[in-house]
Prior knowledge:
The chain is an alpha+beta fold. It contains five helices and five strands, in the order ββαβββαααα. Helix 2 crosses helix 5 (about 135-145) and helix 3 crosses helix 4 (about 120-125). It holds the Pfam family Fer2.
Amino acid sequence: xxxxxxxxxxxxxxxxxxxxxxxxxxxxxxxxxxxxxxxxxxxxxxxxxxxxxxxxxxxxxxxxxxxxxxxxxxxxxxxxxxxxxxxxxxxxxxxxxxxxxxxxxxxxxxxxxxxxxxxxxxxxxxxxxxxxxxxxxxxxxxxxxxxxxxxx
Length: 152
């Protein structure tokens, strides 16, 4: 089985093919941006984009991603240039512990692709399923606005 991860076809060893996409990404392919949080798709720490949609990789069997493009936080930057969402995250000093950040960033990328200039309500709705215990929600909202080219 092969998975298309960040634009590259990646073979998945047979012993990993029955695991979740998260396990395959982290353990078989060494892409550790998506984190294991709850293991049942509720916290958002493991969010990646599958077919452009935010997807909880801990709850998706790896086989279900075969033939579908998967984008992880590692695939956002181009050469040395950060993705605008990543840059906005740093400019607004969002990261604290960092555990939820990759999932939050991937959720934001999906939101901005769908809604380039979201309202605060749309931002809150899109990121509601991403748990962050550090309390940076106001900075996250400012970073989303910054990445959208709106005044923070």
